[in-house]
């Protein structure tokens, strides 16, 4: 059986917010980068499956942030895959700063056929998975399934050049930025930790318009981001401690 | 006399656009990061002058981009200061990818007293500058002084959490993203190089609203970004080859 693999990063100026701490979006970015790098290193990255017109799609994510590391810190991102079935594989993350755990995450991925836009049966990758799986439980509860909400719209704008990735779809990180931009800034400045659950449902393309909104009850904020033609793109629930 | 100093970076996924090449904003980001790191290494970084409540402010920038490096390339960013007077210092950049020059830049900086918001006479730093200056001409023409234009407004939105730096001012890179978001996407995809001149005039704060617009004539685009109370924040001229 395989072992947990760790990657080191330095928190650069472009990863911090006005408090000089890594933003939640940056912390999630480290996780998603490491997911890509680790899958590549172990032979099942995007480049290994794109010959068959397959790609990886993030379907759900849960992240708990206990403390946001300061600019110039060197952080350690540990990752491992511990579950896989025909439709989904689970990759986990533990992030630490000077040995102190500051964030943890659980991500669920599916494999998509880019031509048919259908989900691919991952039994195809059984050999790879059996080689890379680690017998270690996920560090936090799995991502929740989030129900529709009736949010108050706070933002509407066309998808822009700086939003899109090589598929011309809006980058995952942008959704997270849009959510955090909706919070009162004092809440972000003074937060004592949070849990984020996100469901990624459909992709927004260049040419479409993003419409974002939320409902808040106490410390719990539920976001829904759609297109202007009511295609639901993603839902999230962010709970502050 | 000092010598040109070089820094190496790897083009990470978050630095590329949908063409998988480093975006113009990312290329400028490498220059600005290196400006900060090199000034720190040589004893005149932000942290060395902030004890006196001084800070560095970028006033003008000229960048020529000949080719945008691909994701995962390792690039070399060479930098040197070659001019300084009471009001402004000039820092230059040459960026290469596998030995091939792909971009060059000239930046002009002033020192600001954060309390009085007045420009500080840089004669204070004469000794430091005499030690670090390099006798090498700037690689491209100095940044132009840009005149007011009467642009057609294309975008208006409040300053958001994800826009601001530790001074709660809009980050320089965001202005560049806003400009590039206004271009037809095919122009970005098929560009054969460009020259960018930017004048930074005032800072937008959290709570203010950004209003951006441009006028285009042939391959030349002139942008003006203001607040909704008509404070001019920055002007730029972007000329595609």
Task: Report on the architecture of this protein.
Two copies of one chain form a homodimer. Chain A is built from five helices and ten strands, in the order βααββββαβααββββ. Chain A is of the alpha+beta class and 241 residues long. Chain A has two domains: 140 residues, Thiol Ester Dehydrase, Chain A, CATH 3.10.129.10; 98 residues, Hotdog Thioesterase (Thiol Ester Dehydrase, Chain A). In chain A, strands 1-3-4-5-2-7-10-9-8-6 form a ten-stranded antiparallel beta sheet, covered by helices on one side. The first copy, chain A, is globular. The first copy, chain A, starts with a strand and ends with a strand. The mean pLDDT of chain A is 94. Chains A and B meet through helix 1 and helix 4 of A and helix 1 and helix 4 of B.
Report how far apart the termini of chain A are.
Answer: 37 Å
Helix content of chain A: 10-25%
Number of helices of chain A: 5
Largest interface: A-B, 30 and 30 residues
Q: What form of chain A results from the Cα inertia axes?
A: globular
Tell me briefly what this model is:
By secondary structure, chain A is of the alpha+beta class. Chain A contains 5 helices and 10 strands, in the order E-H-H-E-E-E-E-H-E-H-H-E-E-E-E.
């Amino acid at each position: 059986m395989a072992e947990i693999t760790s990657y080191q990063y330095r928190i650069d100026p472009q990863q911090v917010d006005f408090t000089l701490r890594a933003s939640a979006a940056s912390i999630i970015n480290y996780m998603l980068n490491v997911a890509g790098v680790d899958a590549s290193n172990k032979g099942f990255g995007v480049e290994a499956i794109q010959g068959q017109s397959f790609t990886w799609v993030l379907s759900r994510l849960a992240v708990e942030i206990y403390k946001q590391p300061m600019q110039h810190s060197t952080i350690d991102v540990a990752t491992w895959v511990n579950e896989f079935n025909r439709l989904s594989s689970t990759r986990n993350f533990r992030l630490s700063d000077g040995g102190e755990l500051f964030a943890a995450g659980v991500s669920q991925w599916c494999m998509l056929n880019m031509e048919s836009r259908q989900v691919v049966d991952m039994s195809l990758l059984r050999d790879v998975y059996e080689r890379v799986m680690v017998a270690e439980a996920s560090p936090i509860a799995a991502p929740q399934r989030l129900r529709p909400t009736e949010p108050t719209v706070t933002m509407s704008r066309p998808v822009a050049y700086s939003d899109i990735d090589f598929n011309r779809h809006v980058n995952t990180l942008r959704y997270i930025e849009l959510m955090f931009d909706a919070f009162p800034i004092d809440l972000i400045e003074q937060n004592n930790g949070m849990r984020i659950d996100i469901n990624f449902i459909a992709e927004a393309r260049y040419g479409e318009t993003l419409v974002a909104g939320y409902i808040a009850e106490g410390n719990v904020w539920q976001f829904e981001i759609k297109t202007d033609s009511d295609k639901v793109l993603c839902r999230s629930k962010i709970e502050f401690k």
